[in-house]
Amino acid sequence: MSSTVVLGVPVPKMLPVTGTWTLPFAAYLLVLSNRVVMNRINNKKYLGDSLDSSSDPSSGADPLLLTTRAHANFLENVPLAFIMVAVAELNGGNRKALNIAMGVLLAMRIAHVEVGLKGKDTVGPGRPFAYFGSQAFLGGLAAYGAYLVKGYWGF
């Protein structure tokens, strides 16, 4: 599990877990991005995050607002998660546990949109599940990362 640089020196792959999960997360990000673009094109609304600023919010969910928020919510959580997984991985984190955690995070982020925001009145069961799950993921991974370097602090 190593590659060689120009001089023929073997260099280990340092972030295989993080690298493994870039494709599925990027693929779903592309889905979310394309939904925003298609919504903008179909409604001829190329700037802003809602279709009609004068509409009554209680009249139903604004489809452009939903797609832009789904996209933004993904981007608010996933980059930090990737940084935290990479830090844990570089500090000797258990790769199997990190793989499982990333799989669960991907499932939660998909559930947030597909079973949450797209649910009845935008409050499907996926929304609170994914919100609290993502918060637990970030908090748990931060704690795990701190645990991995506890020796640095003399513990």
Account of the protein in words:
With 155 residues, the chain is mainly alpha-helical. Helices cover 66% and strands 4% of the residues. The chain is built from four helices and two strands. It has helices at residues 16-43, 63-90, 95-117, 126-148, and strands at residues 2-4, 10-12. A two-stranded antiparallel ribbon has the order 1-2. A hairpin with a 5-residue loop joins strand 1 and strand 2 (10-12). It is globular.
Brief overview:
This protein has 155 residues and is mainly alpha-helical.
Write the layout of secondary structure elements.
Blueprint: E1 2-4, E2 10-12, H1 16-43, H2 63-90, H3 95-117, H4 126-148
Antiparallel strand pairs: 1-2
Helix pairs in contact: 1-2, 1-3, 2-3, 2-4, 3-4
Features:
155 residues; mainly alpha; two-stranded antiparallel ribbon
Structural class: mainly alpha
- Report the principal-axis shape: globular
Query: What's the story with the biggest beta sheet?
Result: 2 strands, antiparallel
Low-confidence stretches: none
* Tally of individual helices: 4
Task: Trace the largest sheet across and list its strands.
Answer: 1-2
